[in-house]
Structures are given as structure tokens and as C-alpha cells.
Amino acid sequence: MTRQTAAEPPERRLDDVAYIGSLDSQDQFGMVAGLAQQVRAAYASAGDIITDGGGEVGGIAVAGMGGSAIGGDIVAAAYETSLSGQMATIRGYHLPEWVSSRSLVFAVSYSGNTEETVSCLSEALQRSCRIVCISTGGKIAEIAGGEELPLVKVPGSLQPRAASGYLSVPIAACLESLGLATDVEADVEETAGVLSLLSELYGPGVPSADNPAKQLAISLYGKVPVIYGAEVTSVAARRWKCQINENAKSLAFHNEFPELNHNEIVGWDHPPGLMDRFSVIYLLDELMHPQNRKRMEVTGALLKEYAGDIHEHHTSGRSRLARLFSSMYLGDYVSLYMAILEGIDPSPVVRIEELKRKLA
To answer: Is residue 356 among the annotated active site residues?
Structure first.
């Protein structure tokens, strides 16, 4: 391993594969590199799940927190054009009033012990909802077994935030079985192909000079990222923010167009001494509404003299699922490289674990 010294520029760390390996105690880079295989396996894992209880589905609720909740956001964004009713991700202890016996509820918890999700699952049982559980085990799996609920078993060797395929694709597959989402299998295969190509571009073995993920991480070094998306990339913006928080242990913020043009744009004035410490990342999609593209361009021009810099990233692929995953995927790698630049292990989430212990 090349020894790092204080005199060396931190970006040199990104091209030292041995140094990266010495910090990455739980192989987060390997988990991210395996996302293409994960989405394929996740689709297959839901193949035997029977969700059709007869009659029309009265709304879809996905109960989850943190990395287990993003799956609901992903599926809603990817298939909102084909869904006949509402689909909502529930981040909290209670299901909304509209969830009834006609509703389909997904209880998603990687550990199986997330207290908010267990609470929502209990309410779904009380309301006689159609329920599908997605978990590695824990209380969720125990309840599923006792109540004879469908359970998609997720491999337990990952960090929750590294299991985005396992925590999203089975939801889409179940909706496909009900006729609520179409072409999911084809979308999954395309997504896997796109992710395979991108992993060859973003991986640790690709030098910084040829690696967009490393280049962006270097640009963000010492800055506070502000990630802006629109439509399908709005979910990706949230994912970027969360990945930077957990992997790089750094603050980051996100918002979406056109909403931010009605409030946040005014906030780029004060405090003036801090504005240049923020870096804006635009997550672009070629199929977004032309007016949202125009809003991004005009907003960028207005913020140019305030923000430290503005970066752009375009989605890859044809389907909404592939485009969304491609947008999130760069953020996964960037967040890991940001951790390496800081000389920290991306895996531990000490404050989350401490919080859980104090709440127990």
C-alpha cells in the first residue's frame, strides 16, 4: 500500500486502490459494483410472491425508513405513469387514513426491526390490508411467518443503503404481477446492463483522469453539496444526499424543480461568507419537461455568482427505471470517494447506532 502523507494532495488517495481497500472495511465499493447483479437477483426473488387478493387495489403504501424507504420512492418515480391510484412512501409510525383493507402495503425493513415500520405493519394487519414484507429477518419476518404474509427474503450481508436493488425491484415485480406496472422485467434487464457499463467507468481501478465519479468527488472536496433534480431525478437527488450523509459523514442538501424556484432560490444570498462553500449538482434527464430544463438553465445563471460551482450529470438508458438508477449510481460512487478523500471508512454509521441504543 502506498503510504499517504499530509504533504500529498488528498486526491492521490483515489488512485491508490490498496489505500481504498484498507479503509473500506465492509467492501462498500464491492457492494456498489455488484448492483447490476443485485437488481437481477431482486427481480427473481419476488417471482413466487402472490399479491392478488382479488378486486381493485385501493392505493399502495410503502412503509420504511432510511435506505429501506428509498425503494418505494424509486418504484413510484419509475412507474407513476402506469399506476392507476396513489402510491406513497410512509416514513413514520402511522399509516395515513386512506390506507384500507383494499390497499396494498409493503413493509420494508432491511434489518426487520425498524420500529417505525413494525408499527405500520401492525396497523396494516389491524386494517386487514394486503401486505407484502421485504426484509432480511427480524420482527418483520417473524410477524410475516406468524400471519402467513408474503415475505421477500433479502440477503443479510449488505449495508441497508447498499441494498437499493433488493429493497425496490421486488416492489415493482409485485406491482407487475397485479397488472399495475408493465415491462418491469425488461426494465430490470436494461437497468442491469446500464449499471454494468457505468461500474466499468466509475470503479476504483479507473484513474481519476478518466473517472467522472472521482473527478466530481475531488471538485466537492471541502464543499457542501446541494443536489437538484426534477421529475424522475428528484428521487436520485434525495438518494445522493443520504449517501453523502452516511458514506462520507458529510452534510449535503437536496431539492427539486420546479418547487425550489418558489422558495429556495431566494435563500442563495445569506450568509454571504458561506455561499462559495456550496457546490450545486444538477441531475438532468433528457425526457424531463422542457420548462424544467429551462428553469435549471435560468436558475444556474442566477446562482453562478453565488454558488462555488455548478456540475451537471445526465441519465443513461431508455426506461425510467434505468435512467433513475443511472442517476443514483454516480452518487453512490461519489459519496464513497468523498469518504476516501477524508481518509475515513465509509461503512460505520456510529451516530445512527448510538441513537438506536439510546432509544431502545
So the answer is: yes
